[in-house]
Amino acid sequence: MQKGMHTDRARCVRAVQSKDARFDGWFFTAVLTTRIYCRPSCPAVPPKPENMTFLPSAASCQQAGFRACKRCRPDTSPGSPEWNRRADLVARAMRLIADGVVDRDGVPGLAARLGYSTRQIERQLLAELGAGPLALARAQRAQTARLLIETTALPMAEIAFAAGFASIRAFNDTVREVFALTPSELRGRTPRQPAPGRAHAVTPGALFLRLPFRAPLNPDNLFGHLAATAVPGVEEWRDGAFRRTLRLPYGHGITALTPHPDHIACRLTLSDLRDLPVAISRCRRMLDLDADPVAVDDQLRADPVLAPLVAKAPGRRVPRTVDEAEFAVRAVLGQQVSTAAARTHAARLVTAHGEPVDDPDGGLTHLFPVPEALAAVDPESLAMPRSRRTTFTTLVQRLADRTLQLGVESDWAQTRADLLALPGFGPWTADVIAMRALGDPDAFLPTDLGIRRAARELGLPSTPAALTARAAAWRPWRAYAVQYLWATDSHPINFLPV
């Protein structure tokens, strides 16, 4: 069992007394006298240390009978970095719960995706997080309910359904228990005209949200990469925002993400509001918003070669994806061709095999095709070398028949080995999928031409074996080191679009 930060009492007390926002989401402060739980950065006067106890999750606080603080709104903290930097059972389960699997398929569905018994999963989650999968999913439903109550004019019965509650009574009881307010009282506390940037809705199905993150965040490579590689019809950079279509469990959506100094503005248009928590989770994952940039940068700047790069632009994130299978297909399309050629290949597939969507606000036209549709493509129609056609057709067939599964629950090492066993998959393709689709923070690309060029310019070893050995000191954050090395180039992926 992993030991969470909440077990280090002295460190937690210091974080609370200094109101250190870096630790929001790492742990929660439960106040024994008021029975309220807070994030470490709560603006209220810190309680006496003897009245503090520390818990690892909002769900464990709620299970223990604590209510969410009305000032610091701890249920809206950034997610714990633990679930993005680990690949063990608990971390994989937490990623699936955030993706709504328990609400859709129950705990047996969660267990089936992970290949463990429900009892094993419940035992490990309880041991580390103080709450089982049902309680963790309930805490997420409560957060979704609060968001819909405060940002829409929907009737409460529709909100209860959209947030995933089985009944109006369960919805009312949960909101009252978690927030110490009825749903109507919670809505009554929300200003009628939200301040600029605050979450608000304009039409049913359209929401404006603020996505929090741990500072610092450097948006250049993050949005630059997404914009430079955008597939026409599926993604675009428009009016200072990265926009893309989303394939979601109950329908589809369109998101527009705009960087601001202290948050990411997120506009979501959904065909089914039940997809709200999943859409938020996937947007956060694509932008790597639950990372701990202080921990990453502290380790990387210990290397004298990387130190100036980190000092110049701290807080780089790893641009990721909202759909792991989609990214794997795009990685194959991008093998040994330019960014522009890869976009062209992908756009042709989108136009021919993607599902049309309506976008009154921009130029998005399709959802990226599912593997089943791509598996039906005539290989002779693909404008690529025969060997790459074989790679493409093998990949999409394996994805379509589910003998290869790419998802938030993937075991990074095993999936990388599975990818390398496919024809045409070398280390670069497997590692870029591990880094950007699977979310492995330690994935490394020593054979990448941009990385080798940066290494030579910086005086690092440029051969893959020697560079890999030199990069051992950067573990477990080598994927972030890749972002700093890439940033030494003038490629558009490294610059925020204008």
Short description:
The protein is of the alpha+beta class and 498 residues long.
Could you describe the 3D structure shown?
With 498 residues, the protein is an alpha+beta fold. It has 23 helices and twelve strands. The protein has a six-stranded antiparallel β-sheet, with helices on one face. Strands 3-1-2-4 form a four-stranded mixed β-sheet. A hairpin with a 4-residue loop joins strand 9 (252-259) and strand 10. Helix 8 crosses helix 9 (168-179) and helix 15 runs antiparallel to helix 18 (386-400). The longest helix has 19 residues, at 133-151.
Structural class: alpha+beta
Instruction: Say how many strands there are.
Output: 12
Detail the poorly predicted runs.
Answer: 193-204
End-to-end separation: 47 Å
Helix-residue proportion: 40-55%
Strand order of the largest sheet: 5-6-10-9-8-7
Shape: globular
- Strand fraction: 5-15%
On the 0 to 100 scale, the average pLDDT is 91
The description of the largest β-sheet is: 6 strands, antiparallel
**Helical segment count:** 23
Radius of gyration: 23 Å
List keywords for this structure.
498 residues, alpha+beta, six-stranded antiparallel sheet, 12 strands, globular
Present the secondary structure layout.
Elements: H1 9-17, E1 28-31, E2 36-38, E3 52-55, H2 58-63, E4 67-68, H3 82-85, H4 89-98, H5 101-114, H6 118-129, H7 133-151, H8 156-163, H9 168-179, H10 183-188, E5 200-201, E6 206-211, H11 219-228, E7 235-238, E8 241-247, E9 252-259, E10 264-270, H12 276-286, H13 293-300, H14 307-312, H15 324-333, H16 339-353, E11 355-356, E12 366-367, H17 371-375, H18 386-400, H19 412-420, H20 427-436, H21 449-458, H22 464-470, H23 478-486
Parallel strand pairs: 2-4
Antiparallel strand pairs: 1-2, 1-3, 5-6, 6-10, 7-8, 8-9, 9-10, 11-12
Helix pairs in contact: 4-5, 4-7, 7-8, 7-9, 8-9, 15-18, 15-20, 19-20
